[in-house]
Specification:
alpha/beta; Rossmann fold; Hect, E3 ligase catalytic domain fold; 3 domains; five-stranded mixed beta sheet; 19 helices; Resolv_N; DNA-binding; Transposon gamma-delta resolvase; DNA_bind_recombinase_dom
């Protein structure tokens, strides 16, 4: 430690006011004058820097930028003496006061508290500092308690309102809220639509169509925002208070209260919604939500349709069923399925015409139910017929190349790469045979697709090994046995629509990648779909999409791919006395993944 004298001191001054409205010496301007006067009395001081924190608490050093800058400058040796008015200006937290004065002392820097007449270089300096800091900390505790008591009285007796006024439908004017007529109409519109049976998504769509603005003056809406509005008692002239509290007056950490501890006060300002309508909305919301143990509540809308729970759009959204048309001969309703994202938010053309953002827009065309029925029939006929051995071989490939802990991963990957190369060569030879006319087109396509399936299976295994994602060998063997057992089942393919229970058993998901490209994720090895897919409610669509791709690549194996041509589709329709024109059809490409 360097020797300290009363001559030629490089001095830093530190001041703090906890409010911009303190009077006398506590006021910011007066503090500066007071420090200037002290400097004039000490000609041996060379004032290097003045550090002031204005309108900032003294209980936490981390919330005082000037204080922290001063400590950093001290570490750089810019001064050897810090002058401050009193301990309470330096810190109202005993631990902070001792921590920083000790740190400064180790660097040979003295701290003087002029009014308290304490120097950290005095023999009893730390003891006196501890006592004064403890007193300052206790004063902060008393101030905190007085503030809480004042807030209690303000809430219970005076009905004081909190908030900046950034709430749709109202503007803050002095101590109350006044209605903004244009915004209030949007609020009434939201409540009316909900009472008329509209869901949150449909309300959002209508607001966007009508160009209604939110509280930030933007034509931008979220279902979560609308849901909170429908629960906000501000719209009936009341306000929730005590929603948060400060757990510790020293760290100022704000904690959210349980709703049971909220305080509902009468705001004495004009309501936008009647109490009767507000209570009706609350009753409807209660009926529409479901809550699993340990989970947040979420909206429910059940459907008995088998495809609704299986279809997923490439954008990450689910599909919505609607009436496609009515069969004139049978009177039977034909169903169609449309992407919910497209229905709720509109196509690209619509959003452009209405000057709406194009983020996340989806233009996926609707799907008629018989296309799905044709695909699943085609797929299962393939698996139970020509493709049965391909599916089993795909899983045997995984089992044979399973990586035990004692097997070198690099060696296994090289082995898989060799198989990929071998299958690619087979495809090349197959192409030459087809080009030379030695094999027919159907044989070429079937064998080519089979080899491509083996290649993708091997590539998937390489990814799995690289990512450290493995399966127990025993589980793989059990899966293979279950697959063989499933494929031995008899299925009646001489019907237009396969049994719903069979489809629910075998199909995990149908992902619509484009208007004519589908991915079918099948479960022929047992196990619940919940063990594979785990999405959160209201998760962003792009995150859902990415998770879906990752799940497909890590949990499923590509078995084969195929194309449904016009001839195949026409034959299917003709089989059941229905017709199809060529201009009504676009070939469907699909890939089949199994687990």
């Amino acid at each position: 430690m360097r020797e300290v004298t009363n001559k030629n001191r490089k001095v830093a001054i530190y001041g703090r006011v906890s409010s911009e409205h303190e009077s006398q010496l506590s006021a910011f301007a007066n503090q500066i004058k007071w420090y200037d006067a002290q400097a004039e009395r000490h000609p041996e001081w060379e004032i290097v820097e003045k550090y002031f924190d204005k309108g900032i608490t003294g209980t936490q050093a981390r919330k005082r930028p000037s204080f922290l800058k001063m400590i950093n400058d001290a570490d750089q040796g810019k001064f050897d003496l810090i002058v401050t008015r009193e301990v309470s200006r330096f810190a109202r937290n005993t631990l902070d006061a001792l921590k920083y004065t000790r740190q400064l002392k180790e660097h040979g820097i003295e701290v003087r508290f002029l009014i308290d007449d304490i120097s950290t270089f005095d023999c009893d300096g730390e003891t006196r500092l501890t006592n004064m800091a403890a007193y300052a900390q206790d004063e902060s505790r008393k101030i905190s308690e007085r503030v809480k008591a004042g807030q209690y009285i303000a809430r219970h007796e005076k009905g004081v309102l909190y908030g900046s006024g950034n709430i749709l439908g109202y503007n803050r004017l002095g101590k109350t809220f006044i209605i903004d007529d244009e915004q209030a109409e949007t609020v009434r519109m939201i409540f009316r639509m909900y009472l008329d049976g509209y869901g949150l998504r449909l309300i959002k769509t209508e607001l966007l169509k009508k160009g209604r603005k939110n509280s930030k003056d933007q034509v931008k809406w979220f279902e979560s925002t609308i849901s909170r509005m429908l629960e906000n008692p501000m719209y009936i002239g009341k306000q929730y208070q005590n929603k948060t509290y400060v757990k510790d007056f020293l760290d100022h950490k704000i904690v959210r209260n349980d709703k049971i501890n909220y305080l509902l006060i009468d705001g004495k300002f004009e309501p936008i919604i009647s109490v009767e309508d507000f209570e009706k909305v609350a009753a409807i919301k209660k009926r529409r939500v479901k809550k699993n143990p340990g989970q947040n509540p979420y909206g429910i809308k059940t459907s008995n349709d088998k495809w609704i729970n299986l279809l997923e759009c490439n954008c990450g959204s689910r599909f919505q069923q609607y009436k496609w048309r009515k069969d004139k001969k049978t009177g039977k309703i034909k169903k169609g399925y449309a992407c919910r994202n497209r229905i709720n938010n509109g196509r690209t053309e619509y959003r452009k015409n209405n000057n709406l953002p194009l983020d996340g827009v989806c233009d996926r065309k609707t799907i008629c139910d018989w296309h799905l029925e044709l695909m699943i029939k085609d797929i299962l006929e393939e698996i139970w017929g020509f493709r049965k051995e391909s599916v089993i071989k795909a899983f045997e490939l995984i089992k044979d190349n399973f990586v035990d802990d004692n097997i070198n991963n690099v060696s296994t990957i090289n082995k898989l790469n060799s198989k990929i190369l071998r299958y690619k060569k087979k495809i090349s030879v197959l192409t030459d045979l087809y080009t030379d006319g030695d094999i027919i087109k159907r044989d070429f396509i079937d064998n080519r697709d089979q080899y491509n399936g083996f290649i993708k299976t091997a590539e998937s295994e390489i990814k799995r090994i690289d990512g450290g994602v493995g399966l127990e060998k025993k589980n793989l063997e059990n899966k293979l046995q279950h697959i063989k057992k499933v494929l031995e089942q008899l299925i009646d393919f001489n019907v237009e629509q396969l049994d719903d229970s069979l489809i629910r058993q075998l199909v995990d998901k149908v992902i619509v990648r484009s208007d004519n490209k589908f991915e079918w994720l099948l479960n022929i090895s047992g196990g619940e779909m919940g063990d594979v897919f785990s999405f959160m409610l209201n998760e962003k669509l792009d995150i859902k999409r990415q998770k879906s791709i990752e799940t497909r690549d890590t949990k499923y194996t590509l078995a084969f791919s195929s194309i449904i041509s016009f001839d195949r589709a026409r034959a299917y329709r003709k089989q059941y006395n229905k017709y199809l024109r060529k201009n009504q059809w676009t070939d469907i490409n699909y890939e089949v993944y199994v687990r």
